[in-house]
Amino acid sequence: MKKTVRDFILFAVLVVLSGCSSVPIIGRKQPPMPPASYMVQQSALSYQQVLAESTLASSPQQKAQLQRVGKRVSEAVELFMTQNGMADRVGDFHWEFNLIESDAPNAWCMPGGKVAFFTGILPYTKDEAGMAVVMGHEVAHAVARHGSERLTYQVAQQGFGTLLSWGTKDSDYQAAYMQLYGLGTQYGAILPFSRLHENEADRLGLIFMAMAGYDPNAAVAFWQRMAAANPDAPPEFLSTHPADETRIRKLRALIPEAMQYYRK
Description:
Blueprint: H1 2-18, E1 21-22, E2 29-30, H2 36-53, H3 60-83, E3 96-100, E4 107-110, E5 114-118, H4 122-125, H5 128-143, H6 146-166, H7 171-211, H8 218-229, H9 244-259
Parallel strand pairs: 3-5
Antiparallel strand pairs: 1-2, 4-5
Helix pairs in contact: 1-6, 3-5, 5-7, 5-8, 6-7, 7-9, 8-9
């Protein structure tokens, strides 16, 4: 118990010393987070472990398409960040793009630009523009440092939960109180917070793909295909992602902004 609290306090000190920042373009103020160098280092180790435990796709065409889209999006993002005084957001990125054999329709980008696409998402992306929708969205998570922000809040939740458990002596009351605390933070903070990140990644993702020369209108068709394949999604308040209808409606409203960055 003492070690848990000590680790929580040390992490809190590290976070406070790191200072505050804002999400690029969007401007939302973020809390102090762990140093970007720490997240990049940990992500690089995790990424290599994932690759070692996975089967990489063998299709030259699919791999070439992923490299092409990744290169265009990452170069456009780096250029924009550099030209607008935010080069530190991607200064320690070492981009990698790998295609993994898996039926899961998924993709992600770790801090530091470590990208993985699963072959299961390719039937939904269809073409380069569809792949750019996903690439822009996942790169946006990394550029906005959503992973660091979420880690900060998760550690805070665990740390404060431990401290609260100390203040309750009766074991029955303690168990009930901690259950309520967990539910309250899950549905009142963690899930809405995740949906906030998804909304930001949708908005930035449209802009990033437009900067790379991909028409952001492709995002609506992509998410419509995803929605059709997942009709039994949970209610929005129980999900870390916005409901499909909500997401598509917001994307339509965001396209005019993204078109301002569109370079054919």
